[in-house]
Fold:
Amino acid sequence: MLKPSRQAYVPFVSVENMMRLVLHIGIEKMMVDLVTEIEADFKRWPLFDKTPRVASHSDIGVIELMPTSDGQTYGFKYVNGHPSNTKQGLQTVTAFGLLADVATGYPLMLSEMTILTALRTAATSAMAAKWLAPRDSKVMAMIGNGAQAEFQALAMKAVCGIEEVRLYDIDPAATAKCVRNLEGRGLNVVPCKTAEEAMQGAQIITTCTADKQYATILTDNMIGSGVHINAVGGDCPGKTELHKDILLRSDVFVEYPEQTRIEGEIQQMPADFPVTELWQVIAGQAEGRRDARQITLFDSVGFAIEDFSALRYVHSRLKDSGRYQDLDMIADPDEPRDLFGMVLRAQQSEVASPTKPASATAV
Ligand SMILES: NC(=O)c1ccc[n+]([C@@H]2O[C@H](COP(=O)([O-])OP(=O)(O)OC[C@H]3O[C@@H](n4cnc5c(N)ncnc54)[C@H](O)[C@@H]3O)[C@@H](O)[C@H]2O)c1
Structure:
């Protein structure tokens, strides 16, 4: 078979290479770096091409495409959300994504994004808490101890200085897994038997549960004044975590209102329910926390710009790292319009020297 040209190859970051990259950089350092990247992109929010994500719903889950561009680079993520997957030994959320050069449309990098999504979601929560949570917050309640949980806890430690994380999940095995994974990482980890117990003394409350229904993880009577809530798990039509009375007492901050009104906690509220866009707080155009007694709520659903920032960060770390493989992905004929001729020449060379079928592990 003819060998592909240089332009045919796209750097591909496999799960194995993403894990190597994360461990090489260090999880907490990477969280801090990602917050810096996402903040920088939030500050130039107006120049991005933005659209609510394109969602394909079924009774048991959703598959979504999340595109954006800053005019120079284009990115998209494919991501699913299937809360019942864990019963079959599969994950609730998996993802992969791509960066491309706007000038030519050619891909720059293809990457796994299941791990990267957990990192960027945690970094975004920590970024929101950095701007909105009460000063000197030291204790976080973490409700929902699944795949995202440890990432959320470590981002809050690295970025906001959280010292204690209080864990609760309806499944004690999830909490036990989280306790094990967070051992020796400089956090005081407290497993709790109820959500109320987890919230004792917490200035930051993070909900990150998965259920394809309107759930009420937090009710109004559970929330005192002067706290910051990150509501991460409610991110689809019909999938929420908070009782709506909490929203009425909170100042609500969102990523992209056009998407959050469809997917976030505020889907329970009228279309004109007041919200503040988080990017405006970061860009100094809107007020964040006004006083110590205020309840701030980050109604997180996950927006394409966060994935774009994370992909660009990974791309910037690839050069000379060896932590990628070249993927033969773009058909690149010697003469650009002779795509058909390229196929014919491949056939001739195949007849001359037949190749064995590619193995399942080859890229
Ligand atoms: N906002 C974002 O940007 C973003 C990004 C990634 C994932 N998510 C969402 O976050 C949620 C969690 O994702 P994950 O990958 O950790 O899922 P997961 O399935 O691995 O974990 C979810 C955990 O929630 C627990 N849970 C379910 N109902 C509960 C309840 N009533 N009280 C306490 N715990 C409960 C489950 O037992 C499970 O351990 C999902 O809904 C996912 O869609 C949001």
